[in-house]
Amino acid sequence: MPDRLDRNNIAVVIPALNEALRIRGVVEGALAECAHVIVVDDGSDDDTIARIADLPVTVLRHAERRGKGASLRDGFAEALRNGARGVLTMDGDGQHLASDIPRMLDTASRYPGHIVIGARLRKRAQQPRYRRLANAFGDWGIAWGTGYRIADTQSGQRLYPAEVAALDDVPGEDFVFEAQILISAAQLLGTRCVSVPIESRYQCHDSDEVFRASHFRPLRDFSRITWHIVAQCLRRGRVASVYRRIRANPALVDDPSGEFSALPARQPASSQ
Fold it and tell me: What is the pLDDT of residues 143-154, one digit of tens each?
């Protein structure tokens, strides 16, 4: 059985690009839940790092922008060098709540060896409609690479077991990397994902919270992700059998409280 993950044996990795608006609150929240926090500054030209200079975190800096994929790779490597048994990722823009980390750790204990995804299923009406449609399209596409469905494949709040974070040569840059690591974990390690309903915050008319504009560009980035996955599927072949496997493996959602009723909670895996 994999080691039980807790606040002391995981590292939180936060990729950051011009996050001065929210980064201090994000890091302080992460420190309240976990002992080890790593911020990877991807060539920011604002005062992102100055905002957290007095906080007890590890800071890695790229002299120039290399993309989110490179930031995550470097953050994973640093976490594993320091003995982390798991790596939890959060975006630096403040959309994720650090208070969801204990729930993700609880899910990891019920589903050992799984990738835990903080799925933005709560208060979905607050999510811009185009983002909901784009996310649904992304979920469908990535299922063709993993062979099973996942609730919210586009969420950046994830908990990776160490063996997944240690995967070498995961192809794809920027946001393609986050799609590919789910596929690589499924194909190379047999790793599945389990989703935990979380709330993701967005700027909206009935809130005075302000967020920076998203670095994710749906048309550009989903086109890159789609063609990346399509090329793999064509090379692998067996399209009909993959389709049957996807249909037979619905998204796994851990919701023991029953507060989220749109998708049923599933029984914990006995082993993985």
Answer: 988 999 999 998
